[in-house]
Write a structure and sequence with these properties.
Strand 1 and strand 2 form a beta hairpin. With 135 residues, the protein is of the alpha+beta class.
Length: 135
């Protein structure tokens, strides 16, 4: 006798596959990661970016999740997901965006050196870190 999946079982399988894919993407994200700036240049995580730096919000993750910039740099987070996300400091910190629907952006200029951890205020499993160094 052949077992037919019910709609709820199908939804559970699809969700499980989606979570597995997000996990695989997260595992590979830190390896040989490059950060692209708006001027088209790329830097490795050990080499801080300066000026305008972009972070994409896609597939329930920040890309890149961790980056290093020089003081005075502006980071723009753009939501490329179909779901709303936000950018909020994890603990005390300067980041507090509104909910960003698809295509919306939030930017912040980092003037003070330090390490700034942040999360999506809607999906707190989404995390990132900005390290700001003196030029």
């Amino acid at each position: 006798m052949r077992h037919r999946l019910r709609p709820l079982e199908i939804a559970v399988v699809i969700c499980g596959l989606g979570l597995a894919l997000v996990g695989l993407v997260s595992l590979g994200a830190g390896r040989d990661q490059l950060t692209a700036s708006d001027d088209g240049s790329t830097t490795s995580p050990s080499q801080p970016s300066s000026g305008q730096v972009s972070v994409a919000i896609v597939d329930f993750a920040f890309a890149p999740a961790d980056l290093s910039v020089t003081a005075g740099s502006t980071i723009t987070w753009t939501n490329d997901d179909a779901f709303a996300h936000s950018v909020v400091s994890d603990g005390d910190g300067p980041l507090v965006s509104d909910d960003l629907t698809e295509g919306r952006s939030y930017e912040h200029t980092f003037d003070q050196p330090g390490t700034y951890a942040y999360i999506c205020g809607i999906h707190n499993s989404m995390t990132g870190t900005v390290t700001v160094v003196t030029p």
